[in-house]
Design brief:
The protein contains eleven helices and 13 strands. The chain is an alpha/beta fold. The longest helix has 16 residues.
Amino acid sequence: MSDPRPGRVAIVTDSTSDVPADEAARLGVTIIPAVLVVDGKTYLDGQDFSRTQLYRQMASLDGLPTTAVPSPGSFIQAYEQLLQAGASSILSIHLAERLSGMIQTASQAAGEFDGRVEVVDSGQVSLGLGFQVLEAAAAALAGAPLGIVRQVARAARENVRLIAMLNTLEFVRRSGRVSWLRASLGEMLNFKQLVEVVDGTIERLDRVRTRPRALQALRALAAGWGPLGRLAVLHTAVAEEAAALGEELRHLATRPPLVVEVTTIIGAHVGPESIGLVGLLA
């Protein structure tokens, strides 16, 4: 739990934002962990079951890992502590409502605080959400009022882009999170699917037969975004490949790219060896 400066807007998000711990601490962001269920056991995302551990074990697990939203009590406790510590108000920014019940649960909890807590649907996942959080938190730390912090978050939502290569469609097919996926097992084994997250919807971009061609397609798409203020490379258990891609693309953004192994909550649905790019337009 982060301690806000008295009178400032506090920023809350959930662990699906993939905001690095050091950045969260520096900017005073409070992160509520989502819930992961593996072989019938419940874990807090990022605390009880490491990301690398999950991705290395997914192929051998008895069943597909499942995910759950934190309880309303988790949100209420976080909001209470921040307000009691002196926050003037709270902006709570979360995983896309179309993909999760996170917004509904956070809104239920916010209703206990007489308008002092405002919940925002990011329309995004991972650092597509996280970049909105970082921009809003920087404005809040600078002393901006709630209205300005909200505008900063909204502008970041409009300017964020997220694309990814799914190494296999098996995990997302089993998760049931996309309506367009009707591929046969043979198709899923023979192609790499490129996707984009837009307004909380996972949309198809292209289907490529080989991994090198899929990565080249990601590079070309990112280059077409134009100048970037922020860039991140997302991955599930392909750290070296992600780091190399980040070095290749670092010229696209004004800041060094973040390389992040994505939260288990997202990884449980996309599977191991996937890779993605998030950009925030300058």
